[in-house]
Design goal:
Elements: H1 3-6, H2 17-47, H3 51-78, H4 81-104, H5 110-133, H6 135-138, H7 144-172, H8 177-194, H9 210-222, H10 225-255, H11 260-287, H12 290-310, H13 314-341, H14 348-377, H15 379-396, H16 426-431, E1 438-445, H17 451-467, E2 472-477, E3 484-491, H18 494-503, H19 506-517, E4 526-531
Helix pairs in contact: 2-3, 2-7, 2-8, 3-5, 3-9, 3-10, 3-14, 4-5, 4-8, 5-14, 7-11, 7-13, 10-14, 10-15, 11-13, 12-13, 12-15, 14-15, 17-19
């Protein structure tokens, strides 16, 4: 870790005016969303007391992000993130307004409620990857962790304030009030985005098509060890921890005999806990590695779930909500930072979209599972089982390392020379980008003593080649000269190969330097390009 990174102030991102404005407007927007969540959860308990129907509120909120986050991330990497955010949030404001009117007129049924939640959740799916991906555009790289922590603080301030206000509004004005606030809250962030003029990066290659961009994002994640480690830990955690969010409305209504004010207060207490957790985060990170922090926080949540299942005292449940909020913040910010650090800019929105799919997909699946279990054997038993599965998941993923990307330089290296192509006519030049497939060969000469190390490095390079688009890769040894090796890989088209050039990072350049150091001879390894006819 560099000392410069360690000395960055946790408040440093606020030096950026646009970061500060988006942080403030985002906090109001999140507050509206949290008020909407409280209102939706409480409205469903008024329409139906079936635990499954109440659990489906959480499922309808999270399932769209699982379904649509990846195409949303691909779109965000291809089009203007600013324009995408403005258009989608304007649509969401209109939908939220229509939903408010339906609630006010008393025309909402359980099915209609779930439909509106699902539609708004779809909007959130298209907003979330772009919102997370623009953060590195607003602040220097060394302030990224501070910016993510500050976004978590704003998010959880909203969680602390919004639900409490929602509970008061529901009891004093009516159930439609929190939904109205949510509809208006979209306007805050839209207004801020209208005044933001980000730098545009004009590339010399055509933009990716959406289906291809999706496949590229999936391929990058498939061959990224840092991302896969983060995703497995996240899945194991969120699948079980979702039980708390799913069953809390029913716990309040049936076990604690509470009303909307108590429900909003408990949600607010989790937000307060998260704010406390954010304040303590620098100290906690100094005490624990990312893996150990997730381990300790997860075990604390096991205890929280067990106490919530066993002891029905309002004051104790409030304390458990505070502890839950702090642990949730520590784990969520750790996963988020780990995912961000493992992604280069060109695929950032897609990678974060897949992270959100893991997050919300496991939350959605968990909500459905815990709702079904609670329907069959009761809320307390479901919470106890969730505590057990959380402990088991934490144990089995304890060796997955987080923040692996922290030591990786993922900036473009541009060390590959532009390939030379000879064309005989203007027509051939115009068709060049579509020439398919493209085969690349690289010839190495390696001494017998270095072959084992060479092959070990080459198999690491195989993962890199495939991560950037190669669909086949081989390393071949010449039969009559065992010191000669030929690497062969294929890209779909010349355009894809040129994108391959642009995406090579400084980390990849270091690996290739290690390989070239084992190459014998005065000339560098000979590279050839072959184009399909």
């Amino acid at each position: 870790m560099s000392t410069s990174t360690a000395e960055v102030s946790p408040w440093a991102p606020f030096k950026s005016k646009i970061f500060s404005a988006l942080w403030l407007s985002g906090m109001f927007s999140t507050m509206g969303f949290r008020m909407h969540e409280v209102g939706a959860g409480w409205l469903m308990t008024s329409l139906s007391t079936d635990p499954l129907m109440v659990a489906l509120v959480q499922t309808a909120t999270t399932l769209p992000i699982f379904l649509f986050a990846l195409p949303a991330g691909a779109i965000a990497d291809v089009v203007s993130k600013r324009k995408l955010l403005i258009v989608v949030q304007l649509i969401m404001a209109v939908i939220a307004g229509l939903f408010t009117y339906a609630v006010y007129k008393g025309e909402v049924t359980p099915s209609l409620l779930l439909l509106f939640i699902f539609v708004l959740g779809t909007g959130s799916a298209f907003v979330a990857p772009a919102k997370q991906a623009i953060v590195p555009q607003l602040i220097p790289k060394e302030e990224l962790q501070s910016a993510i922590a500050l976004n978590s603080v704003g998010f959880n301030l909203s969680r602390a304030i919004g639900p409490a206000i929602a509970g008061v509004l529901i009891t004093s004005i009516g159930i439609a009030a929190p939904f109205a606030f949510n509809a208006v809250s979209f306007l805050f962030i839209i207004a801020t985005l209208l005044f933001w003029c980000p730098f545009r990066i004009i590339g010399d290659l055509p933009k990716e098509r959406i289906p291809g961009a999706i496949a590229t994002g999936l391929r990058y994640v498939r061959y990224s060890a840092p991302l896969k480690a983060t995703f497995w830990k996240a899945f194991a955690f969120f699948l079980s921890a979702s039980a708390f969010w799913t069953l809390l409305p029913l716990l309040v209504k049936t076990e604690l005999q509470g009303d909307a004010k108590l429900f909003g207060l408990l949600i607010g207490m989790t937000g307060i806990g998260a704010v406390i957790g954010a304040i303590l985060l620098p100290r906690v990170k100094g005490m624990f590695s990312p893996q150990r922090l997730v381990l300790v926080a997860s075990l604390l949540l096991v205890v929280v779930l067990m106490i919530a299942a066993s002891i029905k005292i309002q004051e104790l449940i409030m304390l458990m909500c505070v502890i839950f909020g702090a642990c949730w913040l520590w784990i969520l910010s750790t996963f988020n930072v780990s995912a961000q650090l493992a992604l280069p800019d060109w695929v950032r929105a897609r990678g974060l979209a897949i992270y959100l799919m893991v997050f919300f997909g496991s939350m959605s699946l968990g909500s459905l599972v815990w709702g079904l279990i609670a329907s069959e054997i009761g809320i307390s038993s479901a919470l106890l089982i969730a505590a057990g599965t959380l402990a088991i998941g934490t144990f089995f993923t304890r060796n997955y390392d987080l923040n692996q990307g922290k030591v990786l330089d993922l900036s473009p290296s541009t060390h590959w020379p532009e390939p030379i192509v000879v064309v005989d006519s203007k027509c051939e030049e115009d068709m060049l980008l579509e020439r398919s497939p493209v085969m690349v060969t690289v010839e190495y000469k390696v001494g017998k003593a270095d072959v084992k190390e060479f092959l070990s490095l080459m198999y690491q390079l195989e993962r890199v080649r495939k991560q950037y688009g190669a669909y086949t890769w081989n390393i071949l040894q010449e039969s009559n000269d065992p010191e000669v090796f030929v690497e062969q890989f294929m890209d779909v088209s010349w355009l894809d190969h040129l994108r391959h050039h642009k995406r090579i990072t400084s980390k990849d350049a270091e690996l290739q330097e290690q390989i070239h150091a084992l190459h014998k001879g005065d000339e560098p390894p000979k590279t050839r390009h072959f184009l399909g006819t």
